[in-house]
Structure formats: structure tokens, C-alpha cells
Write a structure and sequence with these properties.
β4, α3 and β5 form a beta-alpha-beta unit. The model has no long low-confidence stretch (mean pLDDT about 95). The protein has a single domain, classed as Alpha/Beta hydrolase fold, catalytic domain (Rossmann fold), CATH 3.40.50.1820. The chain has about 120 residues and is an alpha/beta fold. The radius of gyration is 14 Å and the shape is globular. It is built from three helices and five strands, in the order ββαβαβαβ. Helix content is about 25%, strand content about 25%. It has a five-stranded mixed sheet.
Length: about 120
């Protein structure tokens, strides 16, 4: 059984989906959530296979984005850090009418290394 961890809090009228980076979970946003909550309705997600989102194997970005999109508000600002930025970017490409704005923090257009990109070695991932 797969379960996507999703926590919503905040008083704002604008939805903000927060996606963490590789090897982390939604707790990474805890330090800033109190400052954002008066302005946004925060949706803190543990990406599939991370933290409390259990039962997922290794997934391509498109599948991760689809899983998060299935539970996301119809219109939201998406903020992703590192791997979360890649997932948020993929969501924006896959469902542009669902993503009202995109913010990426320390994200790379390519997470893993290849002949043309000095990313993380696939054996490490």
C-alpha cells in the first residue's frame, strides 16, 4: 500500500505546495512555516518514497509529479528545493494550468551526472 504524506496548515487564501529536497522530508520547512502560514495555505508534502510517504519504489520525476498533482489544490504556487524543485518543475510542465507560479531553490535542471552534466553519480543515487 502506498501513502503520500500531506499536511495542510495556514490562513492565507493562496495555496503554496512545499516540496523538500533529496534525502529529506517535509520537516525541512518547519522553521519557515510559521512565517508563511499567515499569508498562505501551506501544503507540506513528503515526496513519494521519502519520510512518511511509504510504499513507493524508485520513480521517475514524471511519476513523482503525477502523484503529488493528484492530491494538490487545483491552483497553487509550487515551491521546491533541490529534488523538490525538479518535481515542481515537472508538475508545471505536465499540468501548467494547475501551477499558478513556480519557485525553485537550489535546483538543477538535471539531478544525475551524465556525459554532458556534472550532477550526482547514478551509483550514489
Amino acid at each position: 500500500m502506498t501513502t503520500l504524506y500531506w499536511h495542510t496548515e495556514g490562513e492565507g487564501k493562496c495555496d503554496l505546495v512545499l516540496l523538500h529536497g533529496w534525502g529529506l522530508n517535509a520537516q525541512v520547512w518547519q522553521g519557515i512555516a510559521a512565517r508563511l502560514a499567515p499569508h498562505f495555505r501551506l501544503h507540506c508534502v513528503d515526496l513519494p518514497g521519502y519520510g512518511r510517504s511509504v510504499g513507493y519504489g524508485a520513480l521517475p520525476l514524471a511519476d513523482m509529479a503525477d502523484i503529488v498533482l493528484a492530491q494538490a489544490p487545483e491552483q497553487a504556487v509550487w515551491l521546491g528545493w533541490s529534488l523538490g524543485g525538479l518535481v515542481a518543475s515537472q508538475a508545471a510542465l505536465s499540468a501548467p494550468t494547475r501551477v499558478s507560479a513556480l519557485v525553485t531553490v537550489a535546483s538543477s535542471p538535471c539531478f544525475s551526472a551524465n556525459e554532458e552534466w556534472p550532477g550526482i553519480k547514478p551509483t550514489v543515487l
